[in-house]
From TrEMBL:
Top-level taxon of the source organism: Bacteria
Source organism of the structure: Maritalea porphyrae
Protein known as: ABC transporter permease
Record keywords, A-Z: Membrane, Transmembrane, Transmembrane helix
Spans traversing the lipid bilayer: 20-41, 61-82, 119-142, 162-189, 196-215, 271-289
The keyword Amino-acid biosynthesis is annotated on this UniProt entry: no
Length: 298
C-alpha cells in the first residue's frame, strides 16, 4: 500500500504545476481583473447590470459557469497528462528506479491512471470550491454597486453552494468516466511515440476515416462508422437527439435542484458504452505495460 501511495504522490509532485500552481495563478489573475473592472467602472457596470436575474439564480448560474470552465480545463490538462505520463519515466532514466520497486509495469501505469482520476480532479475541485466562495464575495460587491440587486443571504449561499457542487461534481465525474478510452488512447500512443503522441492522436483516426472512405468509395451515401463512433464518444450522445447537457437546467428560470439534475443526467448515460470505454482503457493500459516490460530496456 505504501508503494502505491508513493507512486501517486510522485505523480502529484511531478505535475503539481498544471493542477495546483496554474489554477492558483488563473484564479488570482481573473479575480484581480474582475475586481478592478467593477470598482473602477461602477456607473457603467451598474447600468449594464440592471437586468440581472434574481440574486440566488444569478449566483448559481455564475458558479455553474465557472464550474464548467474548470471542468474544461481539467479535461484538457488530463489529456496532456495522459499523453505524457506513460513515457515520462524514460526522459531522465527514472525508470531504472521505479523498475527496481516491487511493482510491475502494469501496476506503475495503473497508478498513473489512478492519479489522473483521483488526486488531480480533487486538486481542480479545490479551486472550484475557492471560486464559489469568490463568486459570493463578488455578489456582495455587486450588491453595493447595483441598487436593484440584492446579494444572496448566507443561508441561500450555503444552500446554492452545496447544490452546485453536487451537480457539478456529478457531471465532471461522468465526463471523466466517459472519456476514459480517449485518455487511454492518448496514453498508449505516448508509450509508443513519446512526444509525437499528440499529433498522432489526431492523425491516426483521420487516416482511418480516410481509408474507410476509400474502401467504400463506390457508395456515395456511405457514412463513416469510425467518425460516427468518435463523434459519439466526444459528444456523449446516442443515436437519438437527447443530449447529456446541463445547460437545459442552468438556463431555466428556476433555482438549481441537485437531485433533479443528477437524476436527469443519470438517465441520459449510455451505461453499456461507459463499461466498454473502461474496458478499452484497461486494454490500452495492459498493452502499454507489456510494451514497456518487453521492449524498453531498463
Amino acid at each position: 500500500m505504501r508503494s502505491w501511495v508513493a507512486l501517486v504522490k510522485r505523480e502529484f509532485l511531478e505535475h503539481r504545476g498544471a493542477f495546483l500552481y496554474a489554477p492558483a495563478i488563473i484564479t488570482l489573475v481573473v479575480t484581480t481583473v474582475l475586481a478592478i473592472a467593477i470598482l473602477m467602472n461602477q456607473p457603467e457596470f451598474a447600468a449594464e447590470a440592471g437586468e440581472m436575474p434574481g440574486s440566488v439564480l444569478f449566483y448559481e448560474v455564475t458558479f455553474m459557469a465557472t464550474f464548467l470552465l474548470w471542468a474544461m480545463y481539467m479535461l484538457i490538462a488530463l489529456f496532456f497528462y495522459f499523453s505524457d505520463a506513460f513515457h515520462s519515466d524514460r526522459r531522465n532514466n527514472s525508470m531504472l528506479f521505479w523498475k527496481s520497486m516491487p511493482k510491475s509495469d502494469l501496476e506503475i501505469l495503473g497508478s498513473k491512471v489512478l492519479s489522473g482520476y483521483t488526486i488531480f480532479p480533487l486538486a481542480i475541485g479545490f479551486w472550484v470550491m475557492v471560486t464559489g466562495v469568490i463568486a459570493y464575495v463578488f455578489a456582495q460587491v455587486i450588491d453595493m454597486v447595483v441598487v436593484f440587486y440584492t446579494a444572496p443571504s448566507i443561508m441561500q449561499f450555503i444552500n446554492s453552494y452545496i447544490q452546485v457542487l453536487l451537480v457539478g461534481s456529478f457531471y465532471a465525474l461522468i465526463a471523466l468516466l466517459w472519456y476514459a478510452p480517449i485518455f487511454g488512447w492518448a496514453a498508449f500512443l505516448g508509450t509508443l511515440f513519446k512526444r509525437w503522441s499528440i499529433p498522432l492522436f489526431f492523425v491516426i483516426p483521420a487516416l482511418a476515416v480516410l481509408l474507410e472512405r476509400v474502401i467504400n468509395i463506390r457508395d456515395l451515401a456511405y457514412e463513416s462508422q469510425i467518425l460516427r463512433f468518435i463523434q459519439f464518444r466526444l459528444e456523449m450522445v446516442g443515436e437519438d437527439d437527447v443530449s447529456f447537457d446541463p445547460e437545459v437546467w442552468i438556463m431555466s428560470n428556476t433555482k438549481i435542484d441537485a437531485w433533479g439534475m443528477i437524476s436527469y443526467g443519470f438517465t441520459q448515460i449510455d451505461w453499456l458504452h461507459m463499461v466498454i470505454g473502461w474496458a478499452i482503457l484497461g486494454g490500452f493500459i495492459y498493452l502499454a505495460s507489456e510494451y514497456r516490460r518487453r521492449l524498453i530496456e531498463a
